Task: inverse folding
């Protein structure tokens, strides 16, 4: 038995994670590349689902973390620390908003946004107690807490976790008429992924986000944009909502905000919205800790240069051009934006991701038939071309 087989057997036997992993055990990573325990190198075309947008162990981010590790990493939430004010100020500025509420995981940030919308609905909009509703979309993925899975439409994510949290209405993604029909005076928010990631990189019809924005304004509901996977450079702009010049009321951020080093998430909105929380009403032990803030500040500084958005735009256009030229009969459709693609196949995507792995490229299926590609935004053009060559080979079977 190889070391790799031993380690895989241990995780299969003793771990309750069930991500249906590819048969690889990663030991090291650098930039867009990872190395397994046997010393084989692979190009990472998934980037931890957009959490390593800036590459594995990005030197700037590692340096920021190191500096902070030598100073202070965690304080009681009862005390302020010198990274907090600058982090919330700089992130608010990047988003063009007034206030930031830092959390840790994406799901926590989504929960925070849902609580914000309800509290705002009751205290500002004047919705009668217990009547608030929030609209969500078919195919959504916003995390795995009991409330969030209550409005999931994926049986794997949802089944056997009831009773479910009430107060959500789910309509087809991209369907403006259905959204309009579902909204009423008690609607406090519309929770939307500007591009659905886990559902298979589903890009909504052009004008959809603008219509959501307008309907929210008309009905006095908050537009809650879950940019956890789509945001922070992934689609070629800072936020995926930017493609339609849409500014939501609430940005929900995570994944890449932690620079691939640690979980950092946040909810960002104006003071008339996030200001509904008074001291003691919401928080987290680790949310906004000094290490997270130091890393988050560096992420914001890197995004401010526009360099990563530009790479995603240019390399993404190249990637989509090449994907569009794939001659395989297996390929049904290619969706996506920037360095992000869902390649819809006529058959199962799993065998293709397994063949790709043998060829030295890591990508993964989402649902049965979609192959998702989301390389780190630091990927070199030659490496990207090489990965796409391997994809062509893998599709030949
Ligand atoms: C759009 C979106 N929202 C929320 C989440 C949940 O984030 P986390 O896994 O950090 O809780 C994810 C994770 O994939 C996501 O893609």
Result:
């Amino acid at each position: 038995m190889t070391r790799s087989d031993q380690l895989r057997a241990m995780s299969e036997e003793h771990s309750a994670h069930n991500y249906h992993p590819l048969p690889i055990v990663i030991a090291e990573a650098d930039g867009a590349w990872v190395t397994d325990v046997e010393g084989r190198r692979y190009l990472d075309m998934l980037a931890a689902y957009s959490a390593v947008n800036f590459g594995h162990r990005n030197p700037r981010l590692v340096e920021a973390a190191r500096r902070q590790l030598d100073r202070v990493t965690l304080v009681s939430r009862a005390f302020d620390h010198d990274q907090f004010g600058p982090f919330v100020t700089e992130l608010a500025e990047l988003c063009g908003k007034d206030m930031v509420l830092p959390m840790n995981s994406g799901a926590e940030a989504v929960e925070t946004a849902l609580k914000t919308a309800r509290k705002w609905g009751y205290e500002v909009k004047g919705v009668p107690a217990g009547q608030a509703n929030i609209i969500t979309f078919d195919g959504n993925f916003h995390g795995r807490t009991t409330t969030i899975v209550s409005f999931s439409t994926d049986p794997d994510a949802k089944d056997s976790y009831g009773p479910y949290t009430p107060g959500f209405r789910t309509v087809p993604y991209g369907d403006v008429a259905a959204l309009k029909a579902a909204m009423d005076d008690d609607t406090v928010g519309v929770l939307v992924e500007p591009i659905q990631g886990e559902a298979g990189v589903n890009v909504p019809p052009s004008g959809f986000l603008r219509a959501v924005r307008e309907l929210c304004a008309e009905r006095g509901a908050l537009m809650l944009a879950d940019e956890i996977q789509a945001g922070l450079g992934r689609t070629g702009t800072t936020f995926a909502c930017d493609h339609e010049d849409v500014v939501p009321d609430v940005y929900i951020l995570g994944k890449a905000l932690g620079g691939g080093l640690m979980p950092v998430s946040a909810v960002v909105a104006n003071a008339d919205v996030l200001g509904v929380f008074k001291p003691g009403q919401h928080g987290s032990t680790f949310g906004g800790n000094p290490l997270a803030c130091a890393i988050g500040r560096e992420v914001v500084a890197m995004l401010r240069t526009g360099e990563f958005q530009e790479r995603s735009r240019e390399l993404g256009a190249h990637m989509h051009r090449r994907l569009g030229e794939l001659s395989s009969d297996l390929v049904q459709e290619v969706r996506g934006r920037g360095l992000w693609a869902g390649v819809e196949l006529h058959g199962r995507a799993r065998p293709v991701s397994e063949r790709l792995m043998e060829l030295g490229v890591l990508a993964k299926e989402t649902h049965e038939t979609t192959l998702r590609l989301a390389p780190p935004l630091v990927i070199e053009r030659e490496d990207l071309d090489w990965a796409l060559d391997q994809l062509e080979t893998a599709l030949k079977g």
